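Weekly structure sync, notes
Attendees: PL (lead), two postdocs, one rotation student
Agenda item 3: pending single-chain targets
PL asked that the sequence for the first pending target be pasted directly into the notes so everyone works from the same version. It is reproduced below exactly as submitted, 271 residues in total.
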Amino acid sequence: MLKKRLIPVLLLRNGVIVQSKGFKRYQSLGSPTAAVERLSSWAADELVYLDISPAPVYDLKRDDLNHPRFETIIDIIRLVAERCFMPLTFGGGIRSLDDIRQRLSAGADKVTLNTKAIDDPGFISAAAKEFGSQCVVVSIDAKRVEGGWEVYRGGRTPAGMAPAAWARRVQDLGAGEILLNSIDRDGSGTGYDLDLIGEVSGAVSLPLVALGGVGNWEHLEEGLRTRASAVAAANIFHYRENSVFDAKRHLYEKGHNVRKPLPLQGASRNL
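Predicted structure, written out during the meeting:
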């Protein structure tokens, strides 16, 4: 049986790593690369790195952050990849096959599609044909509505689709994985939307990564009891020393089907 994965998520907004709540409020945390070095040393299985910048502006004047200089998102991906000793999935700002090619060439192992996939579903097939399904992840942002859930375009605009139906179509179009994010639970610390995970994972055979709402290690356990192939979280990993290592050790000691945590590599610091 395949091991279930523990995946930290980093959110980049205008060149700075941020904490998100409800896809509306953002708190700046620090350098776009320092967190990657810590997560690599803390034995994460993979890293999802999402650029949620409203425009391609990367705050180059923030000298107080003491980060390497960069001018474009490709510069950032290269810097991240140099420090990332685990599989790297990068999402945000992808509008063409060339955008994907540049991100993979810069060091990403997979890319995540969201808005472009909704606007042009055929792009999923084109990307899978060009780069292989294993490189194509479709991110589904879902919000509770009367009678179920609805997919939101870029987390903000209703797309007029139920997430389970969209997931089935995404699978048929050739995606290799789904990243399922609950808008309602984002930054809440109240746990995953388990009903949403059950609804979508039951509709497809693709690997599914659950995201949104983790406030403690028990929430990760709840996610692992679903059909999700991986549990992901963002905010919780920023404020605890050795957080990913401790989370994985907790899950392993509780008997969950995760990789045994390796000894920590070097010293680590909080953001």
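Discussion points:
- The mean pLDDT is 89.
- The radius of gyration is 17 Å.
Action: rotation student to compare against the earlier draft before next sync.
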